[in-house]
Amino acid sequence: VTQRRMVHKSIFADSQLRHMPEHHHGHLKNVKISGFNSAKCVVELTCYILKNAVSLECLTLDTIYGSRCDDQGE
């Protein structure tokens, strides 16, 4: 999922996270979030994935937005 730059409320400004309904995702094994930051919605999404992706094998949080020079198709 790609999202262009937007202004988001930081988790440091408001640490109350929303609780989303549980829905187990049994086939989600690898997740990479590029441009990970302290935006509240990004942290909430990450928590949701950790809680509900029961088959999760790898979660990569990349704080770099966009591709890297050495990125080889990942």
How is the topology of this model organized?
Blueprint: E1 30-34, H1 40-52, E2 58-62
Parallel strand pairs: 1-2
Structure overview:
The chain is built from 1 helix and 2 strands, in the order E-H-E. It has a domain at 8-15 and 26-66. It has a two-stranded parallel ribbon with strand order 1-2. The chain is flat. The protein is of the alpha+beta class and 74 residues long. Helix 1 links the parallel strand 1 (30-34) and strand 2 (58-62). The protein has one helix spanning 40-52; strands at residues 30-34, 58-62. The mean pLDDT is 80.
Low-confidence stretches: none
Would you tell me the overall average pLDDT?
Answer: 80
Radius of gyration: 14 Å
Oligomer: single chain
Structural class: alpha+beta
Q: H/E order of the elements?
A: EHE
Shape: flat
Number of helical runs? 1
Pfam families: LRR_At1g61320_AtMIF1
Organism: Aegilops tauschii subsp. strangulata
Protein name: At1g61320/AtMIF1 LRR domain-containing protein
Domain At1g61320/AtMIF1 LRR: 1-69
